[in-house]
Amino acid sequence: MEKKEKLYEGKAKVLYKTDNKDLLVQYFKDDTTAFDGAKKEVLEDKGVINCSISTAIFEYLEKNGIKTHFVERLSSREMLVKGCEIIPVEVVVRNIAAGSFSRRYGVKEGTPLKKPLVEYFYKSDELHDPMVCPNHVYLFEWATKEELEEMTNTALKVNELLKKFFDEIGIILVDFKLEFGRHNGEVILADEITPDSCRLWDKSSMEVLDKDRFRKDMGKVVESYKEIYKRIMERYEGMKE
Ligand code: TMP
Ligand code: ASP
């Protein structure tokens, strides 16, 4: 497999074409942004750690029957993925009130939700990712009813799997964001799953271990991501066949 020209550069990742028209290289940068790119810093090694965490999570999800774009890890910052047409709807699943949910509905951060909540946001930095409901998704034809239902069901399955995955390493999965794409007529999980796209709190100390450390200038961002990866490795490395 040969890496070819750049196809797309996002805020935290770059996609390159390959000599196989079906496959792309996804490169994880150290660039870290918040508030739709308004706050930006380069955090040394973040890309390496996020590539590692995302690889471990995609492998775990694939093993548990979730279809993803992940093919294999290629290098410290690169993974081979199936090229897909990204559906511009970010699917957020919440278990505990935090972030924009707490602000929007006046619910204290840390309040457990009675059941997991799925929310949809239109992927547009320019418009600051506005929250949308399924009717907007159908009206603007971002996805069909069948596709959105599949995304929702998959997001809820991923939530159950990841709650268990993190619980076993002493971490609470507060909420997370998923992106999906179309590949050969199927909807598959794409993008990344990292502490940039999840809220993760230590189960005993309630310490924040995710990108909120960057958003809120709490320091020790990469150190926290490394702590998550260390725990993942301790728990799951021995379980590999
Ligand atoms: P929110 O509370 O700010 O809406 O974020 C919900 C979850 O989505 C949280 O785990 C962080 C993640 N997220 C992203 O991955 N990208 C984004 O642009 C935003 C705003 C949140
Ligand atoms: N990912 C978004 C940005 O880069 C927002 C966020 O994660 O807070 O600006």
From TrEMBL:
Coiled coil: none annotated. It comes from the Bacteria. Residues 6-231 form the SAICAR synthetase/ADE2 N-terminal domain. One of its GO terms (molecular function) is ATP binding. CDD domains: SAICAR_synt_PurC. GO terms for biological process: 'de novo' IMP biosynthetic process; cobalamin biosynthetic process. Keywords: ATP-binding, Ligase, Nucleotide-binding, Purine biosynthesis. It is an enzyme of class 6 (ligase). Pfam families: SAICAR_synt (PF01259). Pathway: Purine metabolism; IMP biosynthesis via de novo pathway; 5-amino-1-(5-phospho-D-ribosyl)imidazole-4-carboxamide from 5-amino-1-(5-phospho-D-ribosyl)imidazole-4-carboxylate: step 1/2. InterPro entries: SAICAR_synt/ADE2_N (IPR028923), SAICAR_synt_PurC (IPR033934), SAICAR_synth (IPR001636), SAICAR_synthetase (IPR050089), SAICAR_synthetase_CS (IPR018236). Its EC number is 6.3.2.6. It catalyses: 5-amino-1-(5-phospho-D-ribosyl)imidazole-4-carboxylate + L-aspartate + ATP = (2S)-2-[5-amino-1-(5-phospho-beta-D-ribosyl)imidazole-4-carboxamido]succinate + ADP + phosphate + 2 H(+). Belongs to the SAICAR synthetase family. This is Phosphoribosylaminoimidazole-succinocarboxamide synthase. It comes from Desulfurobacterium thermolithotrophum (strain DSM 11699 / BSA). The gene is purC.
